[in-house]
Amino acid sequence: MDDSYVSPRPVHQLLAALSYGDAVSNDALALQGHLLAAGFESHIFAEHAHPRLARRCRRLWEYAEVSSPETVCLFHFAIGSGAGRFIFQAPDRLVTRYHNITPPELLAGFLPHLARQCHQGRLELRAFAERTELGLGVSEFNRLELEAAGYRQTGVVPITLDLDAFAAGPASAVVRSVFGDGRTNLLFVGRIIPNKKIEDLIRVFAFYQRTFDPSSRLLLVGDHWGYEPYLLFLQAVARELGAQEVLFTGQAEDDELRAYYSVGTVYVSLSEHEGFCVPLLEAMAFGMPVVAYDAAAVSETLAGAGVLLKDKRPDEVAALLDRIVRDRAVRDPVVAGQQRRLGEVRGTDVGARLLAQLRPILDR
């Protein structure tokens, strides 16, 4: 980041929850690093904090100590929350960092409480338009949603990703020993939540396993705490289809996550709503071919790399996966194209883009 411009104006961040392994939380921590490196006073305030990260943030009620008309607050908007209602009433200069809100209709059948929160969040998003001086999406898809909601000044600052450092970290020997046995591992990483449409992925896998590779596995790596009704539904779908070795790992530690990526054969996502989708790029960093359904911001994140699906028919997707697994003439060009995309990500100076977006506010 260019640190030639230093403002005495503090730039603090506020979010509903600072969670372990969460994309919104990781983004807040990375942005704090950019702000501190540029000479700004910058703290993270959270309504809730994971015990591992409690020392990295201050609690929501402490924000009153720094709140003022001169303070710039970068509020991470991902769901309706008490933190949002708090900052809406505060005197601070407001920048809304929009990570997208899952459409409630994708959740209502399994998680009505979360669907209500998302519905409330989308109402609050519109209310914030007049209150916000600048709306920053993590993707152009998100920026367009801000524009449609009435935000006058908008921009894009992508999520900070140090994929090389992540891939170079230690990997769990246990996970590698159990799953690195040469069998085909189809991999998905993310919360076990209805908008991810994991039932569609299980249907594809069941066809693939039955038709092409009886010894294959489906590794579903992600937190399912609080989403048990959906988890039970998915387990029932797998049983009804006769799919074997559909494995829900739960939330993974960083070393375990690296190991899952290292033993994965193909990364597959059939999600129908993503505001960015970091795992697509993480999988690329481990040399995995990526296959993803074209929904929301997925095509923007892939940027021409990987394989973008326009249809989810289990027979067609399974046949494509078989060609990628068995035929290097199909697989290798996919992986090579992904290296180009990784080069673009490496060349993005997120800190500089953040400061460039904030400068008009800091100058006023």
Descriptive account of the structure:
The protein has 364 residues and is α/β, with parallel strands linked by helices. The protein folds into two domains: 164 residues, Rossmann fold, CATH 3.40.50.2000; 184 residues, 3-Layer(aba) Sandwich (Rossmann fold). It is built from 14 helices and 13 strands. Helix 7 runs parallel beside helix 8 and helix 7 packs across helix 12. The longest helix is centred in the middle third of the chain and has 20 residues. The model has no long low-confidence stretch (mean pLDDT 96).
Tag the structure with descriptive keywords:
364 residues; Rossmann fold; 17% strand; 14 helices; 7-stranded parallel β-sheet; single chain; alpha/beta; 6-stranded parallel β-sheet
Question: Can you lay out the helices and strands and say which pair or pack?
Answer:
Elements: E1 11-18, H1 23-37, E2 44-49, E3 58-59, E4 72-77, H2 82-89, E5 93-98, H3 112-131, E6 134-137, H4 140-148, E7 154-156, H5 163-168, H6 173-179, E8 185-189, H7 198-211, E9 217-221, H8 228-241, E10 246-250, H9 254-263, E11 266-269, H10 278-285, E12 290-293, H11 298-302, E13 307-309, H12 314-326, H13 328-346, H14 350-363
Parallel strand pairs: 1-2, 1-4, 2-3, 4-5, 5-6, 6-7, 8-9, 8-11, 9-10, 11-12, 12-13
Helix pairs in contact: 6-9, 7-8, 7-12, 12-13
